[in-house]
Design brief:
about 350 residues, alpha/beta, 5-stranded mixed sheet, 12 helices, about 40% helix, about 20% strand, globular, binds 5'-O-[(R)-(carboxyoxy)(hydroxy)phosphoryl]adenosine, binds zinc ion
Amino acid sequence: MLCLGVESSCDETALALVQDGHLLCDLVATQEKMHAIFGGVVPEIASRIHLQSLFDLWKQLLDTSGIRPGDVDVVAVSRGPGLLGSLLMGMGFAKGLALGLGTRFVGVDHLLAHIFAPGLEQELPLPALALLVSGGHTQLYLVRSPVDHQLLGRTLDDAAGEAFDKMAKLLNLPYPGGKWIDALGRLDAPDPDLFPVPYLDNQNLDFSFSGLKTAMANYLAKYPELRLEKWSPGVDLKEIVARRPHLAVVCSSFNQAVVKGLLKKVRRALLGRHLKLQGLIVAGGVAANQALRQGATELAQEFSLPLVLPSLPLCTDNGAMIAHFGYLLAKSGFGHDLSIDAIPRGKPVPHDLIRFSS
Ligand code: KG4
Ligand code: ZN
């Protein structure tokens, strides 16, 4: 079964092909440079670039993979949650293709696709506790199968990735800034007294990063000398830190506060022994963070659970995860008709899969 995946939920346009669980081709056109000018994603610009990029990527996909359009069995598309205008570009393209080629069609939950992405690299130990940390979402799931999952906790305000991006913006680092805070933080040890670990004083599995974000913004306002006057691509981070030694400690401490806030809730869920878990999955853009990967590794060891971390290219948005999750759904006999809508950020993705034959 050959599944084409279409991703356009934010600022990456991506197409990928998965054949029977194996990745054949994975193409992405990133808009990072364009949005970096504005310090964040401008939705209308994102939609227009998706519209321009999708057809070019499709031609490139056919050239590099050697497949013919008629070889595609299933078209899978990221249906949300994400930026509505951006999603609609991918959705229109995918529906048109499925209609024209007469293939099966499936709308994929972008967040679940992140969680199942490492399934392209290793077998997933299910049922698993899955922490999804991205630019727009921070959610904790119990995942039993591609069609059987339960949301255990979610952020009540900002996502962890949003807090990273905000900090980077205040420091005049390029968008998206998480990777720069991560890299600068690796250059020194954290000071645990610098930032509060967010949202611990409760018994739930939800997250909150707005308090930490405010504490960080207040701190940076007190020390404006930490801000870069200007960013030059290719600059050596050690040079930046040599001129502002405290910057690495601040970034490292912020990394640590986010990671502690995330893993405190993961630990709480792991202690709920009734879950009968076989593994722990950490996925999404922020899963590329070195401090989080290290912390999750230690936590999984403590609970003697296999830990699944996607390789770095599979952490951030990509088409492979959509093609893979679409393949898993289609293989199990599920799909959609062409009437489904895109789901904007903040709205739950409906459980409206239709059972076809497998
Ligand atoms: O999953 P993703 O590519 O897009 C969404 O679905 O949102 O996640 C993007 C987020 C951004 O906030 C970005 O700053 C963050 O992931 N990110 C990181 C790192 N790499 C990407 N955050 C912390 N450390 C990183 N190494
Ligand atoms: Zn994502």
